């Protein structure tokens, strides 16, 4: 970042709005204290709800305001660092802006101080797998590669290990991109995987959601790169967003520069040369969507400086990402698969396609995100043996749509253990019990990762009761 973007935080009154239960709030709070800021943390949750986070910060000179927000904290703050879950339209932020405060986020601060070029990855589906695969490839070249962002890992906690040549890969949510957009920031290499309706409880329209995703490349300059999915019409329509050079990935058109699938082969075409990467069967990840993610990851890693042999080695050694089509156990001939990160219909459809032809018992439902579940229900009813629903604000609509489509529906259940036990009773040998909710997790769970952890625990309890070797 240029010098005018740097912030001198010594003695500044900084208000962290939303500590959270994952590492982002902790990392930025520690870093702010290290920079000499006078830090106050305000969060609507109670001390008991935030106990692990508070324990992690207990030795720092931080003032906490919990269970409420106070007007004077926002009026007196010079800088407010908002959690991504806090809407930018929050009246508390409006109050701070009116009093002259600067609004930042963990990511905007990190972009200012990171000494290395950043690879940023976003999309409705595939961003975590793509970012992880990209980092896996880059580590074949530079083992010190950093992976952080919207996947439960604070970028600031890893900042001391980052030098000018360190590859840095960040998963970026639409909410984090809002903050970067406000300050005119985009990564050196931007990757856009897929876009489909999601978070419409937060955005006024699908177009507004698309615009938030588009921000990943909006402020790129000549010399930057924009890696774009040519198989997704919405994503491809975003290719001219900024000044970065467009590199495509997807099915091969025989002409474009980028990473492509040609039948069962993956190839890289760049600067007038075409090189074969490997065969599809060499990538140990399930589903066609995994191939798309691999192509995006290869493109970004090669543009950053990795070589073809690094890409081959990284993809051959790829491991499934936790909470995304994660095999938890085999019990009585049934696979129990944790896909809790499938919080949008498009992700559920990809999971169902992965297990096409096998008897599936789907565990779904949860909190509403403003997205219609009607079309998803039609596909689910045609593809699965039964649906077991978790309770939540979206579940009544989902249940009605499923029943209208002819699905066998059980529940809703108020605990994951009940849902897993019901699903196990309905499953048959050779089949799959698939947690792929299509909804947010709030209500029964803190977040989707907590939901996935509850699924793992319930499955392992079931296995231990039945004396099964996992």
Structure description:
This protein is of the alpha/beta class. The chain folds into 3 domains: 12-103, NAD(P)-binding Rossmann-like Domain (Rossmann fold), CATH 3.40.50; 106-315, Mur-like, catalytic domain (UDP-N-acetylmuramoyl-L-alanine:D-glutamate ligase, 3-Layer(aba) Sandwich); 324-464, Protein-Tyrosine Phosphatase, Chain A (Alpha-Beta Complex), CATH 3.90.190.20. It is 36% helix and 21% strand. It contains 17 helices and 20 strands. It has helices at 23-34, 51-56, 71-76, 91-98, 106-113, 127-141, 155-158, 174-182, 206-218, 233-236, 288-304, 308-316, 345-354, 374-383, 395-404, 416-426, 448-465; strands spanning 13-17, 38-43, 62-66, 79-82, 102-104, 118-122, 146-149, 168-171, 189-192, 225-229, 245-251, 258-262, 265-270, 273-279, 326-331, 334-338, 360-364, 386-390, 409-413, 432-435. The strands form 3 sheets. It has a 9-stranded mixed sheet, sandwiched between helices. A 6-stranded mixed sheet has the order 15-16-20-17-18-19, with helices on both faces. Strands 3-2-1-4-5 form a 5-stranded parallel sheet. Helix 5 (106-113) packs across helix 8 (174-182) and helix 6 (127-141) packs across helix 11. The protein is globular, with a radius of gyration of 23 Å. 51% of the residues are buried. Mean pLDDT is 94; it is low at 1-5.
């Amino acid at each position: 970042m240029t010098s005018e973007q740097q912030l001198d935080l010594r003695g500044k009154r900084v208000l962290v709005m939303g500590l959270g239960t994952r590492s982002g709030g902790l990392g930025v709070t520690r870093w702010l204290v290290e920079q000499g800021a006078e830090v106050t943390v305000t969060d609507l949750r109670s001390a008991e709800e935030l106990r692990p986070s508070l324990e992690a910060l207990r030795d720092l000179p931080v003032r906490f305001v919990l269970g409420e927000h106070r007007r004077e904290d926002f009026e007196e703050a010079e800088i407010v660092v908002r959690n991504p879950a806090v809407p930018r339209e929050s009246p508390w932020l409006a109050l701070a802006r009116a009093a002259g405060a600067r609004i930042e986020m963990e990511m905007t601060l990190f972009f200012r101080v990171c000494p290395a070029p950043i690879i940023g990855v976003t999309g409705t589906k595939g961003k975590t797998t793509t970012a992880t695969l990209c980092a896996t490839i880059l580590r074949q070249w530079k083992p010190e590669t950093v992976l952080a962002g919207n996947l439960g890992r604070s970028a600031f906690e890893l900042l001391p290990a980052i030098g000018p040549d360190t590859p840095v890969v960040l998963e970026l949510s639409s909410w984090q991109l809002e903050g970067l957009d406000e300050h005119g920031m985009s990564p050196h290499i931007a990757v856009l995987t897929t876009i489909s309706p999601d978070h419409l409880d937060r955005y006024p329209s699908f177009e507004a959601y698309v615009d938030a995703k588009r921000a990943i490349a909006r402020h790129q300059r000549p010399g930057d790169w924009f890696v774009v999915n040519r198989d997704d019409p919405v994503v491809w329509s975003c290719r001219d967003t900024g000044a970065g050079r467009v590199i495509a990935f997807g099915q091969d058109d025989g002409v474009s520069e980028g990473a492509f699938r040609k039948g069962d082969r993956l190839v890289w075409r760049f600067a007038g040369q075409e090189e074969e990467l490997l065969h599809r069967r060499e990538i140990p990840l399930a589903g066609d969507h995994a191939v798309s993610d691999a192509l995006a990851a290869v493109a970004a890693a090669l543009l950053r400086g990795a070589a073809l042999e690094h890409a081959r080695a990284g993809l051959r050694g790829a491991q499934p990402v936790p909470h995304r089509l994660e095999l938890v156990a085999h019990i009585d001939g049934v696979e129990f698969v944790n896909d809790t990160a499938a919080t949008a219909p498009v992700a559920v459809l990809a999971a169902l396609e992965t297990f096409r032809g096998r008897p599936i018992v789907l565990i779904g439902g949860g909190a509403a995100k403003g997205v219609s579940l009607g079309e998803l229900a039609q596909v689910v009813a045609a593809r699965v043996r039964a649906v077991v629903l978790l309770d939540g604000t979206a579940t009544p609509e989902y249940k009605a749509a499923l029943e209208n489509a002819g699905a066998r529906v059980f529940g809703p259940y108020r605990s994951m253990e009940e849902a897993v036990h019901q699903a196990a009773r309905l499953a048959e040998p050779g089949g799959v019990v698939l947690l792929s909710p299509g909804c947010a997790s709030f209500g029964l769970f803190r977040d989707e990762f907590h939901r996935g952890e509850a699924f793992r625990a319930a499955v392992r309890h079931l296995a231990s009761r039945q004396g099964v070797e996992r």
